[in-house]
Amino acid sequence: MKQYVDLHLHSIHSDGVHTPTELVEMAARLGLKAIAIADHDSVDGIDEARAAAASRGVEVISAVELSVEHKRFQDIHLLGFCIDHRDPVFRDRLGEFRHRRDDRGRAIVTRINKRLARQGRGEISYEEIQQQVTGALGRPHIAGALLAKGYAHDMQDAFVQYLIPCNVPKRYFPMAEALTEIHRIGGVAVLAHPPTITPDRMRLGGLVRELATMGLDGLEVFSNSCFDDDMIFLESLAHELGLVMTGGSDFHGFESDVCMGSGRGGLAVAYRLAAGLKERSAGRPYSMR
């Protein structure tokens, strides 16, 4: 009997709508053997998830998702798996990024309110949005406030009308620094949903080869952003470069067409990929996998 996993989930500690406990309960109902809650710039949900998983037969792999830049590429998403999520230096660094993220959220709301004023509509309140957020405030939380006011039909409409035109650039980890930090805390560095970086496979292949020389450990081969031919390309690249492969739904809970474990319906990530992550991390300093 095959055993499946979902190695890319988000909780209320970043831009998801479910608590870590709820995610574990959902995974147990779906029969998933392992999950990774990879919140943006936050590891605050991992201990709660592991406590909830203890009696439910679900393995929780520690993870985080960092926003990274490298040369002309911005907003590359880098997953760190099997990390020491309690490392105080790393947690302090994430705290700095979350603080900057909150500042960015406030600036975006200010821009949106100016746009709403031009439309003759009432403002949304940053403070009220913040009260509903457990972790770092993200753009989906702001979109939720717009939906609650009836200013958008759905999440996509909120982004198209307000979040994209009123965006404020965010701060990124330099790639070399992010790779070094993930390795320092015993982690495995994996490039998330690679086709979102560039649809040009020549450029993407060149980027991945360069990052592999810098210490990149793996590729998220199986994701919602990949068609079958993308997965074949990424799997071939991973084999060529000796990179581990992972996969996940990138589930946040607000998407109408994305489900945990199965993504948009065709995702099936075997447990052997989680085992491969643990094997890659085994020789690194942190031993509590």
From TrEMBL:
Domain Polymerase/histidinol phosphatase N-terminal: 5-70
SMART domains: POLIIIAc
Protein name: PHP domain-containing protein
Source taxonomy: Bacteria, Pseudomonadati, Thermodesulfobacteriota, Desulfuromonadia, Geobacterales
